[in-house]
Structures are given as structure tokens and as C-alpha cells.
Write a structure and sequence with these properties.
Number of domains of chain A: 2
Shape of chain B: globular
Structural class of chain A: alpha+beta
Radius of gyration of chain A: 16 Å
Order of helices and strands of chain A: EHEEHEHEEHEH
CATH class of the largest domain in chain B: Alpha Beta
CATH superfamily of the largest domain in chain A: VC0802-like
Oligomer: heterodimer
Strand content of chain A: 35-45%
CATH architecture of the largest domain in chain A: 2-Layer Sandwich
Largest sheet of chain B: 9 strands, mixed
Number of strands of chain A: 7
Largest interface: A-B, 21 and 16 residues
Helix content of chain B: 25-40%
Distance between the termini of chain A: 16 Å
Structural class of chain B: alpha/beta
Shape of chain A: globular
Helix content of chain A: 25-40%
CATH architecture of the largest domain in chain B: 3-Layer(aba) Sandwich
CATH superfamily of the largest domain in chain B: ANL, N-terminal domain
Largest sheet of chain A: 7 strands, antiparallel
Number of helices of chain B: 12
Chain lengths: ~140, ~425
């Protein structure tokens, strides 16, 4: 139930994000979800794309620093309290979330949240025990 | 391995006697040829024939870069241009360039001292020597070239730059010996990696690196990345170019070719000559050069001399690797800082690469130091807090070594400009503002 995310280190300067997204578009890589964390000097762009390996190659070739790491994708109800109920489960199990970001599934009543944990396997087990629906890497890319 | 074993292993007494004889001849030659030197000797209150021992040199004043610039271009040449067969020049980035000339005999001398240098690393006529020092007015390229040819090695005069081609020839020609700046050797390792070439598995055995200061940690990094032995070589345009001094395989100081280049160490503030073992500025007198000899030239390089015979058998006095120059030194909030100290810290930290730029500026009345350093590609985090921890770590370690606080700016890989020759490590904006 592990999902691959690609992270890119970018200096915080004008047009850098536009260059990155243009590069991906040009290479027919579709962005499913994106999150940006930044400081005044640099930022980290985290992406879920339809072809992680290809994206990694394309970025490396363009001399951008990218790495692939493991996250999980959780389906939550797209209604008030949907995310809160998942977080309540994690909190009571003592699982700490490093960061998360989300996107809506097309034409359904679900939203998908990308979670990053330090202890990813333990978090997966807790969520499964509570019947929370996790998406596989393939399911996520087939959406 | 020796080029000239007899001279390189002379005992101190014999060496001093050769030096004294040559100094006496030098004094006569320069005073006969150039009015500047007549005045130079009278300032020291001594006549050329008054030089009786090598210590008498201490009675003379020093020659500085300013003297050389003031006499631009040929004012200090001791031979007419008809005897001069080659002219080199410094880049002149900080003023008028310094121009130096060589007679045929000077070129012979240059080839011999460079042959000694290359023999320190075991170079023979069977080796392919890839010379990536810049050819042209810069002395690095041709100096190495003459020495390698003198030995009979096969020289590849590829000069600097053209990095992919450098790697290709290294593979195809089976290069044994590389000559370039330390920063360029790391750049080549990077290019090889990008090309998918395992540079460690190539035939390359030894590299002669010089023309810029490099730390011990940077050396360890180069030796590991290229899987070779590296030797530090030392020289200056004003003296002859490369060939003044070189490490041997024991890498315990650089052997100065003191039968040609007489070294002194002085206190840079008072000019007082310091005994062996004390740190100070290196001053050199060229004992036999014909077209462009110098007497007591202040190199601005800080080092220590060690007269003990070396394990390799050489008795030539050794100078410690140059860590900094008096004119590279930055004075930040009153504290002396050498770029090499910063490099030393950065090389030891995981997560950043040794490509960096130090930007010094004045904010209000305070000096502000920004250290721009590239994150390494193999070690990337997905969380900001980890990068922040990395920045804090660098900042703390720099502060403990330098005693001043700096700002760290993490950069994308490849964003700090690569140099094909001497790396540019410092941008001092205070100077531009006329402070």
C-alpha cells in the first residue's frame, strides 16, 4: 500500500516552478497532486505523477535534484469531518503525521489525502485495522 | 623516483655553497642590467660584490607585486628581447598584469624543475600525461608540458575545458597522469558520472594539482572519487610558473627546488626573517634565471619551512601546503578567515557538495557573510525541517571553526559556477562599495 512520491529541490527564485511544470508537461507527465513547502531561500516540491520513474529521469537530465520516497494515499469521505475521522484514528494510535496534502477524485464523493509518516508501516497497519481505504500505487495512477 | 638525484639529495652545506655562489652571480647580473636593481641594492646599503654569504640577502629590501607592475611590461627584464624566446603574463584581474620573459636557458631550467616535479609522482616516458592546465599566457599549461616532454612522456596538450572530451580521451588513450587545478579534477569526476563513465576504473594513476589552495579534506574527496594519488604542486608566474615546489609520494610538505629558488619566511607585518619551523610569508629569490630574475619576491603565501631530510631521500627543504594567501584572507568583523577553512568544514558534512561561493557584503556597519553551498544529489530530503537542520549544522560548525556567524544558503546542484581553471570561491562586495 506504499505509494511513490517524487520530491524536487528548487531554489526560491522567479519562474523556477513554472520551468519545472513546463518540463513535466513537455514530457507528457501528468501531475495528479502537488504540494509545495518553502522557506525564503528554497522550496521542496512534492508530486504524485502518472509515471514516477520517467519523471525522475526527465528531472535528472535537466540537472534538477529529485528523489523518490514513500508515502501513502488514503481515501477519505469528501464531507465535513472526513479528514478529522482519519486523523483521530492516527492520533489515538500515537502515529505522527509529518505532512499531508490532498486532492479530489473526479466525479465521486471521495477525496484522496497523501500522508507522509516517519513510521510508515505502523501507520498503514493502524489505518487498515480501522477499515480505512488505502490506494495502491497502481490504483492512484489509474484514477 | 628522482630526476636529478645528486642535486635533490645534497647535504645542507653543499646546498648553501651552491646557493651562495649563484646569489653572488645574480647580484652582479641584475645590477649590471637594470637601474632599478642598482637602486634596490643601494637601498639595502650593499654593493653586488658585498654579497659574501647567503645571509647577506637579508640586507636587501623586498620586491613586491607593485614593483613588477610599476615596471610593466619589460622594465625588470635583465636580458634584451632578442634573447627572450617566450613571454608569459598573469591574468591581471587585480591590476596591470605581470609580464615575465624566458631565455632558452630559462626554458631549459623550467623543463628540468618540472621534470623533477613529475618524477616525484613516478612519471616515466611510458606515461600518457593529460595536461588540462590552460595553455596560453598562463604558465600552468606550458610549464607542465615542457616537463612532461623532457621526461619523454606522451603529452596530451588538451588545455582546460571541453570536459566531456577530457573524459573520452582519458578512456580511449589510457591516460596515466592528469594535470589540472584541484577544483577542475572534481568537476571532471562529476562529468564522468553524468556520462555514465566509472572514472575510478580508468587507468589514471596520479594527478598533479595546483594553482589554487585546496584543503586536506578536498584532497581526500578527490582521491576517493577518482581513485588516484594526488600531489600538490606549487609555483607562481613571477618566479617561473609551476616547478617551484612539489610534494613527493609521502605528501609531507612540498620540496622546494632551492638550488634555483631560494626560500625565506618572513613576518608579513615587520619583514623580519623567521627561523625554520615558524609560520610566515614565503619570499623567493630566483638564483639562476636570466631574463626575469627576482630578488626577495614576496609571494603572499603563508607557509612553514622544514629542512629535515624526507623519507623519500630528498634533502630539499620542504614547505607546508599553502592553506591561504595573505591577499586571499578575508577580514570579517575583524576576524581573519581563509576560504580554505570554510571548504574544510563543508567537505566533512553529508548532504552538501564541496561546490561553494562565499559572498561577503556590508549590511549597515556590519560585515555579512553568506555561504552558498550546493545540496548533494544523493542526499535529498522531502521535508523542510531536515534542510533547516542541515543549515543549522553547517552554520554551527563554521562558527566553531571561524569564530564568526554566517548565513547558509542551500543551492541547487550545478548552480555554483564551475571553473575550468582557478575556482572563484569568494565574492567580496565590500570592495565594490569602496570600503
Amino acid at each position: 500500500m506504499i505509494v511513490k512520491q517524487i520530491c524536487v529541490f528548487l531554489e526560491n527564485r522567479k519562474g523556477r516552478l513554472a520551468e519545472l511544470t513546463h518540463l513535466l508537461g513537455e514530457n507528457k507527465i501528468n501531475i495528479r497532486a502537488i504540494s509545495l513547502a518553502d522557506t525564503s531561500d528554497f522550496g521542496i516540491v512534492r508530486l504524485i505523477v502518472n509515471d514516477t520513474e520517467k519523471a525522475h529521469q526527465v528531472l535528472k537530465k535537466a540537472e534538477l535534484t529529485a528523489t523518490i520516497n514513500n508515502v501513502i494515499a488514503v481515501e477519505v469521505a469528501d464531507k465535513p469531518g472526513g479528514l478529522a475521522s482519519v486523523l483521530a484514528i492516527l492520533q489515538s494510535a500515537g502515529q505522527n503525521v509529518e505532512y499531508l496534502y490532498g486532492f479530489l477524485e473526479k466525479k465521486t464523493d471521495k477525496a484522496i489525502m497523501i500522508f507522509r509518516f516517519d513510521a510508515i508501516d505502523a501507520a498503514v497497519n493502524v489505518l487498515k485495522e480501522h477499515g480505512v481505504s488505502l490506494l495502491s500505487d497502481q490504483e492512484l495512477r489509474d484514477l | 623516483m628522482f630526476w636529478d638525484k645528486k642535486t635533490e639529495t645534497l647535504d645542507r652545506k653543499q646546498m648553501t655553497s651552491i646557493q651562495t655562489e649563484r646569489l653572488q652571480d645574480l647580484a652582479q647580473r641584475v645590477c649590471a642590467a637594470v637601474p632599478f636593481y642598482q637602486e634596490f641594492f643601494s637601498k639595502g646599503g650593499v654593493k653586488p660584490e658585498g654579497i659574501k654569504s647567503i645571509e647577506d640577502l637579508q640586507r636587501l629590501p623586498f620586491l613586491s607585486k607593485h614593483n613588477l607592475r610599476d615596471t610593466y611590461p619589460f622594465g625588470l627584464f635583465c636580458r634584451p628581447l632578442k634573447d627572450v624566446v617566450e613571454i608569459h603574463s598573469s591574468s591581471g584581474t587585480t591590476g596591470k598584469p605581470v609580464v615575465v620573459g624566458y631565455t632558452r636557458q630559462d626554458l631549459d631550467l623550467w623543463a628540468s624543475v618540472m621534470a623533477r616535479t613529475l618524477c616525484c609522482g613516478g612519471v616515466t616516458e611510458k606515461d600518457v600525461v593529460q595536461n588540462a592546465y590552460g595553455y596560453g599566457l598562463f604558465t600552468g599549461g606550458l610549464g607542465l608540458h615542457y616537463g612532461a616532454q623532457k621526461i619523454g612522456a606522451s603529452v596530451l596538450p588538451i588545455s582546460g575545458g571541453n570536459s566531456k572530451r577530457q573524459i573520452m580521451l582519458m578512456q580511449d588513450f589510457g591516460t596515466d597522469v592528469l594535470c589540472c587545478t584541484p577544483s577542475y579534477s572534481l568537476c571532471l569526476a562529476e562529468i564522468a558520472e553524468e556520462m555514465g563513465v566509472d572514472i575510478k576504473s580508468l587507468k589514471l594513476r596520479v594527478a598533479f594539482l595546483g594553482a589554487e589552495p585546496w584543503s586536506d579534506s578536498m584532497r581526500a574527496e578527490i582521491e576517493k572519487k577518482l581513485n588516484i594519488m594526488t600531489l600538490d604542486i606549487y609555483g607562481l608566474t613571477e618566479i617561473i610558473g609551476p616547478g617551484v615546489a612539489s610534494e613527493c609520494e609521502y605528501k609531507d610538505g612540498l620540496h622546494i627546488n632551492e638550488d634555483y629558488f631560494f626560500p625565506e619566511i618572513i613576518n608579513p607585518d615587520t619583514g623580519e626573517v623567521l627561523p625554520y619551523g615558524e609560520e610566515g610569508e614565503l619570499v623567493i629569490t630566483t638564483l639562476t634565471k636570466e631574463a626575469f630574475p627576482v630578488i626577495r619576491f614576496r609571494t603572499r603565501d603563508i607557509t612553514v619551512l622544514n629542512p629535515e631530510p624526507c623519507k623519500c631521500g630528498r634533502t630539499l627543504v620542504r614547505m607546508r601546503r599553502v592553506g591561504g594567501r595573505t591577499d586571499d584572507m578575508l577580514i570579517i568583523r575583524g576576524v581573519n578567515v581563509f576560504p580554505s577553512q570554510i571548504e574544510d568544514v563543508l567537505v566533512k558534512i553529508d548532504g552538501v557538495s564541496p561546490h561553494y561561493l562565499i559572498v561577503v557584503d556590508r549590511k549597515g556597519t556590519m560585515d555579512d557573510v553568506e555561504v552558498r553551498v550546493e545540496v548533494s544529489e544523493g542526499n535529498l530530503f522531502d521535508e523542510i525541517k531536515r534542510f533547516e537542520a542541515l543549515e543549522r549544522k553547517i552554520k554551527n560548525e563554521l562558527e566553531s571553526v571561524l569564530g564568526i556567524s554566517t548565513r547558509i544558503k542551500l543551492m541547487e546542484p550545478h548552480s555554483v559556477e564551475r571553473s575550468m581553471g582557478k575556482a572563484i570561491r569568494v565574492q567580496d562586495k565590500r570592495k565594490l562599495k569602496g570600503n
